[in-house]
């Protein structure tokens, strides 16, 4: 019983009832146009005085409504109304104007159904409640008799008066049932008639995929640049604190490296955030590359006290810009992993070479113990794998038999861009 009451009179049913009443209100101008046509066609001067003529006017007005539904704003407005009043999820609806022939046909069918069902339910909502109220209150006026109230003579009988309130309540329930049924049908048909076409769904999926790709790229850039800077600055500050009294020269170098690291990172951060600001152009700082900042990256890492050995058997100036940029980020993340997991007391070996048409990057450091855990885990190795895969390359990372941890990346010199 409670479930049935919620279906007929719950919040969702009431909102769908409002949606139908709005459809009836939208149908009224078309009904008036229909009366202008039906009146002269039938020779009647009082169309509203005849229920069959009213229905005929309603039937003539609906095709006119279907034609006017081709206006661009019809589908966005109807979709918004369906979302808020019928409880249909927004991702199942299309909020742009109908452009293709199929979309226009579906929009016209929906508009006709909305106004058709809405006109019927709105008319019932105007006529049924007063009639039901008369039936419910009829026993109070039993002495007047049904005929004196303009009602059928059968209501003069006692049994009819006793059943009149029940009949009145039943008509109200029937009205609620009709409204709930029509509202449920419209909510069910809305995604098919107001939803995106297969082409629209494909375009939306492609747009979401492109947006996700941009977000992932920005996340990798932020992780690699900011994560490396924080790791390096933390170790530089820690090393400077330990030798603050005994080695002032090292402290000055560490502070200078911290200043340079933070300045460069702020520039990179501004460049990445510039992509997020709608309407902004690229950031003020270009993305770093092997050709532009490999030496600076190695020197800033060494400033923390980490012993970094670099073997460069490739000409960074000869690398394609995209390859040089991604390779720089891979080396940067490899150094960041070494700093985070083993600190500054071990040596890190970096090797960059070109062999067999591929750029080979190796970052290796000794394993001094179990890697410290990080809250939430890290995403550096996953980002490196993503960068390598997007360029058509491969990456591996893990411990070796020589008690070292090795990051090994191969990037084709002419991979997919």
Automatic annotation (TrEMBL):
Matches recorded under InterPro entries: HATPase_C_sf, Sensor_HK_TwoCompSys, Sig_transdc_His_kin_sub3_dim/P
Domain of life: Bacteria
CDD domains per the UniProt record, alphabetical: HATPase_UhpB-NarQ-NarX-like (cd16917)
Keywords, in A-Z order: ATP-binding, Kinase, Membrane, Nucleotide-binding, Phosphoprotein, Transferase, Transmembrane, Transmembrane helix, Two-component regulatory system
Gene3D superfamilies: 1.20.5.1930, Histidine kinase-like ATPase, C-terminal domain
Reactions catalysed, as given in the entry: ATP + protein L-histidine = ADP + protein N-phospho-L-histidine
Pfam families according to UniProt: HisKA_3
Domain Signal transduction histidine kinase subgroup 3 dimerisation and phosphoacceptor: 215-279
GO cellular component labels: membrane
Membrane spanning stretches: 20-41, 53-73, 109-138, 158-187
Any GO MF annotation of the entry: phosphorelay sensor kinase activity
E.C. number: 2.7.13.3
Cited SUPFAM superfamilies: ATPase domain of HSP90 chaperone/DNA topoisomerase II/histidine kinase (SSF55874)
Protein name as catalogued: histidine kinase
């Amino acid at each position: 019983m409670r479930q049935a009451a919620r279906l007929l009179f719950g919040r969702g049913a009431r909102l769908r009832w409002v949606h139908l009443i709005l459809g009836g209100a939208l149908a009224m101008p078309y009904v008036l146009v229909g009366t202008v046509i039906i009146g002269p066609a039938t020779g009647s001067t009082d169309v509203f005085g005849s229920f069959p003529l009213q229905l005929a006017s309603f039937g003539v007005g609906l095709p006119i409504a279907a034609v006017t539904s081709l206006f661009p704003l019809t589908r966005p407005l109807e979709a918004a109304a369906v979302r808020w009043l019928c409880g249909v999820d927004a991702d199942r609806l299309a909020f742009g104007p109908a452009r293709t022939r199929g979309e226009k046909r579906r929009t016209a069918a929906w508009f006709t159904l909305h106004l058709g069902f809405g006109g019927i339910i709105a008319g019932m909502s105007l006529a049924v409640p007063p009639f039901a109220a008369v039936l419910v209150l009829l026993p109070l006026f039993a002495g007047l008799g049904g005929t004196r109230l303009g009602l059928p003579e059968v209501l003069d009988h006692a049994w009819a008066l006793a059943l009149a309130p029940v009949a009145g309540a039943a008509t109200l329930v029937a009205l609620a049932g009709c409204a709930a049924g029509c509202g449920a049908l419209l909510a069910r048909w809305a995604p098919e008639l107001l939803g995106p076409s297969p082409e629209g769904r494909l375009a939306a999926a492609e747009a979401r995929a492109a947006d996700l790709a941009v977000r992932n790229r920005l996340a990798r850039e932020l992780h690699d640049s900011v994560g490396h800077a924080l790791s390096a600055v933390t170790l530089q500050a820690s090393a400077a604190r330990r030798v603050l009294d005994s080695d002032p020269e090292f402290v000055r170098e560490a502070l200078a490296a911290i200043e340079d690291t933070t300045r460069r990172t702020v520039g990179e951060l501004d460049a990445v955030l510039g992509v997020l600001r709608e309407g902004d152009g690229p950031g003020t700082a270009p993305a770093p590359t092997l050709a532009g900042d490999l030496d600076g990256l190695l020197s800033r890492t060494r400033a923390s006290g980490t012993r970094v050995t670099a073997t460069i058997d490739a000409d960074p100036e000869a690398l394609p810009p995209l390859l040089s940029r991604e390779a720089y980020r891979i080396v940067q993340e490899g150094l960041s992993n070494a700093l985070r997991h083993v600190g500054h007391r071990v040596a890190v070996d970096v090797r960059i070479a070109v062999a067999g048409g591929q750029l080979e990057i190796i970052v290796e450091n000794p394993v001094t113990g179990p890697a410290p855990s990080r809250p939430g885990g890290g995403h550096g190795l996953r980002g490196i794998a993503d960068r390598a895969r997007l360029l058509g390359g491969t990456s591996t990372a893990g411990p070796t038999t020589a008690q070292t941890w090795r990051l090994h990346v191969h990037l084709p010199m002419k991979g997919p861009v």
